[in-house]
Amino acid sequence: MNVEVKRDGLILRGLLETPDTDEYDIAILMHGFTGNLGYQKTDLLEQVAKKLHEQGIATIRFDFNGHGKSDGQFQDMTVLNEIADGSAILTFTRNLPHVRKIYLIGHSQGGVVASMLAGYYPEYISKLALLAPAATLKEDAQKGDLQGTAYNPNQIPDTLPIKKGLMVGGFYLRTAQTLPIYEVAKQYTGPVCLIHGDADTVVNKKASERYHQVYQNSELHIVEGGSHRFEYKARKQALQAVTDFFKNSN
Predict the structure, then answer these.
(1) Which residues contact 123 (CB under 8 A, 6 or more apart)?
(2) Domain for residue 43, yes or no?
(3) What is the pLDDT of residues 149-185, one digit of tens each?
(4) Does 162 reside within a domain?
């Protein structure tokens, strides 16, 4: 069913899918930079959700502000306000009837958001899965590189044009330079599943390897030949790793 959550005057639009049972565990899925909740059958998050449904796990996934069908301008989006989006979605999910355990799953920048959200709300999150988490966005911002678009990191522009005709706001770039990604993430001490492709040209697998170092209870899966979106054969391996991680509700 379609659901809406309001955050600071913006309406975030999403999709809630639940099993026909009295109680269920639920996973909050978070998409990446310029992405959406997954409207096509070939989309990564749509396929993750389908695999979880086969295990009797409910899912809720939203478009972040400035993305997809949610309110807001892409130019105003930052990692910080996506964390605020995540907080509002988590509160909404916690108040749903019949929910037992809550899981977080994030891809790319959504992985950064999920990791930090779990660090801020560790008591509410039972398990966390990060797929190609884009924690390198901080060092990229410090160097003045946004997925191949260069800028002066010491003279940050008010706006930066990128692919798809989109404009990134300067505040996104400024805040990215100082995000306490790993410092916040490590406050979460529950089970973590890290999945990264060794052929990812968008986010180097060193991001997941560092997460693996700072987490107390993590497993790391490096998918051979896996791209940033785990295309082709790598998609099956990534989906299997996610499924296996959540199959047991311990």
Answers:
(1) none
(2) yes
(3) 999 999 999 999 998 789 999 999 999 999 999 999 9
(4) no
